Every structure is written in structure tokens, then in C-alpha cells.
Amino acid sequence: MSEQHKPVLSASDIPLVALESMNQTHREEVELINHLGELLQAARDGKPDLEAIDRALDVWIDHTASHFERENRLMEQYGFPPYPIHAGEHANVLAELNTLRERWRQHQDPEPVARYLFDKWPAWFDMHVKSMDKVTAQFLSKFID
To answer: How many CB atoms lie within 10 A of CB 11?
Structure first.
């Protein structure tokens, strides 16, 4: 990653939780975000690679869907009491991401994706991991490694 293209988040920005499997998933997510961020910044700099953005967006959203499905399944399996609230937030974010992807497919305008990725997603991710994921991981760590 060039100095000009600052990462959306660095590895040290990722809050840690009690389950290493969740931490690993979060690291993977940040790698995908940073790759997409590089492509979007290049587009802002006048060097758009629309096919690469399309692929990176799909990989990120598909990874996020799998990530959320896995967490939801574990919360339900082990009877995590606030499961409906946490799963509801997952559903809301996936709906946003799928809307973002549909708009991308219709217009192939990198700017709305860039605004979401650079402006909205980092704050949401930080808050979600520090609150919902932290409590969930603490609970699940009683049952799984």
C-alpha cells in the first residue's frame, strides 16, 4: 500500500475480543476493506479500475455475510441472551451493504462506495466490535476456543 493511499483501518485499530476466531475474521475483514479502499482511492485519483472494484466489493460483502452468519449461528446455538439484538444489527448492515452493491451495479460510481467505506464503516465497525462483539465473544468463550 503506498503512502498516498492510507489504509481505512490498520491492524492496530482493530479492537480485540475474547475469541481468536472472531479476531481473525475481523483482521480478514480489514484486509478486504483496505484493498477496496486502495481501489476507491485510485478511482478518486482518476485511475478507476471498475472491474477490480466490482470484484473487491463482492468479496468484502460475501465475507461479511459469512462472518455474520457464523456469529449468528454460534449465538443461537449457545443461547446468547441478546442474540436478537446482535443478529438484528447484522441484518441491518447487510441490508445497507446489499443496497450499496445494487447501486454500484446500476451506476458503477465509485464515490458512494468510497463515502460509505471511508466515512461510515470504520466508526460502525469500531463501535460494533467494542460493544456487541466484545460481549458476544466473552459469552461464547465459555463454550468454544
So the answer is: 11
